[in-house]
Each structure stands twice: as structure tokens, then as C-alpha cells.
Amino acid sequence: MMKTNQTYTLAFLVTGFPPDVSGVSHFNWERAQWFAKQGNYRVVVFAPDWQLKSEPIWMRHQNENLIIERYPSKPWLPYKFTHVPKFIAASYIRKKLQYYHPDLIIVTDVERFFLLGTWQLPGLRYAKKHRIPYIAEYHTDLYNFSAAYPGWQWLRNLARSSQLASYLYRQIDTTICASTSASQSCKELGIPNIKTIPFLGIDVSTYSPNRRNRKWLEPWLTAEEKHHKVLLFLGRLGFEKRVDLLLEAFTKLKCRQPNCSLIIAGDGPVEVVDRLKRLAKKVPHIHFTGFILGEMKANLLASCDLFCSPSPYETFGRTVVEAIASGIPVLTVESGAVSEYILDGINGYLVPPNDVEGLANCIEKVLLNNNTDLIQEALEDSRQFSLDQGCENLDRFYQQLMGVSEENEESIRLSKTGVNSNVI
Q1: How far apart are CA 393 and CA 136, in angstroms?
Q2: What confidence tens digit (pLDDT) does each residue in 392-424 have?
Q3: β-bridge mates for residue 71, sequence order
Q4: What distance in Å separates the CA atoms of residue 158 and residue 37, rounded to the nearest whole number?
Q5: pLDDT tens digit sequence for 187-224
Q6: Alpha-carbon distance 27 to 20, whole Å?
Q7: Residues 241, 272: contact at Cβ < 8 Å?
Q8: How far is CA 251 from CA 204, 240, 330, in A?
Q9: How far lies 229's CA from each of 38, 134, 214, 310, 364, in Å?
Q10: pLDDT given at position 1
Q11: Residue 363: phi, psi to the nearest 5?
Q12: Is 107:134 a contact under the CB 8 Å cutoff?
């Protein structure tokens, strides 16, 4: 299905989207805006309605080429900060696809659509009928991290024993993974037709070492902590983030390095937050801030002394990239996608997963080290994760799938730069 006016309609079927504050949500929103601004795409995003009566004010009046369709959704019981489709969402999406006539359908987090809501792949029937590409993007290691939630271990066991993932993804033309580790996880699950494309990215210009100023920490630090070294965790407080390991490591660290503080920025299910606060209660100088966004978030990242991410399930590690772009050393685990771009002792620090003693020892080492060269290397490396680069990688692949000829591709490129392709 091709269009002669060189305008192509992309339909994104997502479960992570604002007002959700996850890394996947941020990327889906930023990616949609990027493609809508290119001039040759109309972008239609199908996202959870979050049971809201209207769109948040800051999301209104966007580019006319960006359309947001909200399907019926409900909170996911283990993590109510995530909303998943209701069963009726599939029929809603199907009707809207018939109206918009997309040239390409991209579905993210297939498992959330199928297992947690619709029990079918929305838009698949439409794609087959109209012979357009139907592709998936693997954003979240749902099978593994769901096992960290009490009562949800069955999901990982079911996926492995029944080849459920293989069954689901066999119906999809191509599954795109953003990292080698994500591709390997998909292969182990029996998922066919995998393509590795580094498509995830952030607006790195938002983050900078120039934002560093201790005054940004004053809302949480006491006068006693004025000269403390400050550790930071920033992200969703889900079981899979393993902030409990960081609290245990910080407890050990305080016995050897009492002049340090820990800020935990984020929020999550009540049972998770309450458990973490109980663990933290016996240790001084631990501060919970709740969600922090925007300029305040960028200022906080630049003003701490060390960023710690103990989660072994990251398929990208958005907050890790934000931290290295902010000019502070990063300590994370040697697992998942982050271990592909964080090189131990070169641009960050790595410890084995689930190793409390190793985590505490490495934190102490980092705080005592001169990290100037490492930080500079990390700053240089952070540029490869720009939003522009990731979206350009996707843009080329989308055009291949839609059969955009080299002539049309060149015409599109010239139109972006304001050059008339008929002028020689």
C-alpha cells in the first residue's frame, strides 16, 4: 500500500505513554513527536486512556501530524502505575485503523496487549487484510521482571514451558530489539524474525554537568549532610528495580563511610514503597522524594556524586544514559543492555547482579576515586544515545518496510532540508 503524495501514516500501538512516567513512556512520546515533525509522516498513537476525561494540558495543541487515540484501559494489579488495555480495546483500535488507513503498524510490548488485556494482537487482522507490515518492538523484559512480583512467577514459567512468546511473535513480520542482549533474550524465548536496531534514545541536550549545584539538593539534605557525598537512585520503585539491594549495600557502606547520603527519587506501588521505607528506617540520611520530572530531575542528576542502578532487567537503561550525560559516575550491574555500553572502569562501574557486598565495596571505591577521566569518557559516549540517532535508525527501517524507493527517499530527504528535488 503506497501513497503518491509521499505522506505515510504510522500507527503506534503502545501501553507505555504519558501520564505514565516510565522510560518506555517517555520514549514513545518523544518518538511520536519526532516522526510527526519530519513532514512526510502522519503519526497516530493508540495509548491507554488512564481513565482520564481529557488529555493533559501540556499534551494538547501538538503538531497537526500527531494524533493521539486513547483506548479503554485499567491499572495492572501488580503495578498500578502502569495501565493495560481492557478487552474491548482491540475492537476500538480495529475501528480506528479502518478510519486512518495506516501504511505501517508498530506494536510495543506485545505481552501487555495479549496477556494483560485484549487476548489478541490488535491490528493484526487489519494488517493482513491490507497487506501492510505489522511489526513489534521489544521494549520491556516482562517475562523476567514479572517474576520479581509476588504471585507472578507463573508468567515466566508459562512463557518458557509453553513457548507462548514464540507463538505470539510468529504472527508478527519482524521484531525489533534495541540491544544485543534484548535480541538474545528473544531468541531464548523462541521468537523468530528478530532485527537488532539501536532505536532507543533520549534528548541528551536536557542533561549537562553545567547544572551541578548543591542548592538543588537542599530540599532533602539536612544541615548535618551539607558536605556529604550523595548517592542517587532515580526511577520507578518496582520490585524489579532491586532498590532493596541498594539499601542493604548503603547500610554496609555507612559503617565505613558515615559521611554519605542516599536520595531515592521515584515512586511505585504502595507495598513496594512501604517495604523500602521500612528497610531504610534504621539507617540515617536516606531520603525518599517521590517522582521528580523535567528541569528538577536534570538538576538533581547533575548535582549528586554517584548514580546507582541495581536492576538486572534493563533493556536500555534510560536513567543510566541520563546520568552519564549529566556528568556523574554511574554504578550499575553487569546484566542486560547497560553492560553493552557501560565499560567497567572506562566510562562507568559494573558489579555482578544481586551482590550486596560487591555493590557496597564498589560504591566506596567510586566515592574515593578521582573519576574525572571516566566522567569525560562517559559524556562523550552519551551522545550516541541521542533521540535523533535512534529515530533516524527507525526511519530508515520503516521506509524499507513500506517499500519507499531510493528516489522517494531522496525526495523526502530534500524536502526536509527545503531543497526542491526538481532543481538540478
Answers
A1: 15
A2: 999 999 999 999 854 454 554 444 444 443 332
A3: 48
A4: 42
A5: 888 899 999 999 999 988 899 999 999 999 999 999 99
A6: 11
A7: no
A8: 33, 20, 19
A9: 44, 49, 11, 19, 10
A10: 39
A11: -60, -45
A12: yes
Contacts 24+ apart (CB under 8 A), 167-174: 168/110, 168/111, 168/114, 168/121, 169/110, 169/136, 169/193, 171/121, 171/124, 172/107, 172/110, 172/121, 172/124, 172/134, 172/135, 172/136, 173/133, 173/134, 173/135, 173/401, 174/133, 174/135, 174/136, 174/401
Average pLDDT of the chain, as a whole number? 88
Residue 274 burial (C-beta neighbours within 10 Å; 0-12, 13-18, 19+): exposed
Q: pTM (2 decimals)?
A: 0.85
Q: Are 36 and 49 in contact (CB under 8 A)?
A: no
Q: How does DSSP classify residue 202?
A: B
The torsion angle over the Cα atoms of residues 143, 146, 147 and 148, rounded to 10 degrees, is 140
**9 vs 133: CA distance, rounded Å:** 12
Residue 177, Cβ neighbours under 10 Å: how many?
Answer: 26
Q: Give the whole-angstrom CA distance, residue 154 versus residue 37.
A: 43
pLDDT for 5: 59
Per-residue CA distances from 23 to 67, 99, 123, 241 (Å) = 21, 30, 25, 13
Q: Could you tell me if 265 and 289 are in contact, meaning their C-beta atoms sit under 8 angstroms apart?
A: yes
Positions of the chain with pLDDT lower than 50, given as ranges: 1-4, 406-407, 409, 412-424
Closest C-alpha to 82, from 244, 243, 232, 272: 272
Residue type, 112: R
C-alpha cell, 353: 547482579
246, three cell numbers: 541498594
Contact 240, 266 (CB under 8 A): no
Backbone angles phi, psi at 300, to 5 degrees: -65, -45
- Cell for 247? 539499601
Q: What is the pLDDT of residues 76-128, one digit of tens each?
A: 877 777 899 999 999 999 999 999 999 999 999 888 888 778 888 999 999 99
Cα distance between residue 300 and residue 310, in whole Å: 19
What is the C-alpha separation between 276 and 267, in angstroms, rounded?
A: 11
| Region at 336 (left for phi over 0; alpha for psi -120 to 50; beta for the rest) | left
